[in-house]
Write a structure and sequence with these properties.
This protein has 205 residues and is an all-alpha fold. 75% of the residues lie in helices and 0% in strands. Helix 3 runs antiparallel to helix 7 and helix 6 runs antiparallel to helix 7.
Length: 205
Amino acid sequence: MTTTGRRALLTAGIAAAAATALPGCTAAEEPGPRKPGAAEVEAARVARAEAALRLRSVTASRSLLERYDAALAAHPALAPRLTPLRRSVAAHTKALGEGGTTVRPATAAPSPTATATASAGATASAGATASAGATASAGASAPSPAPVAADPRTALNELAAAERTTSDTHAAALVTAPPEYARLLASVAAAGAAHAYLLTEGARA
């Protein structure tokens, strides 16, 4: 074999070896998917916990709102006493849900006044993001409100009990709520206690 031939053969061998080695080097040097840091993992956990807390709080207030609607439908004569309180509960429900949490609309048959307020609340809820709405709808399947007592005074006492239960629920959530939301929950819980008084003891004064 001539010198030129040997040289060509050697050059071809080096080129083949390089071609075989290069893909392996390239694959080894390619970075894999970046793993989230500890701070990112914690931030995601906190966000999920807050979203779940907001959903529970809104669902509790929505259930109370449905109790008011049912009471108004069963006892229209109580409208002068119940309508202002019902309006306050509707405002609380909206405030607790701001930030992306929505719930299903009330299922009870409302009075005309209650219907107008509920429509306003539904319009506000529709402004939330579609993904948040889907998540909340999946988790907010609260049971229908309990039947309203035929006696008006008993119905008021039952509504006052529902106010106290909802107030206690909001107060219990203060422990895990972020500061700003905790202040809102405390305000709503205090209002609920006042509503319960007005529905029972306050009416006798």
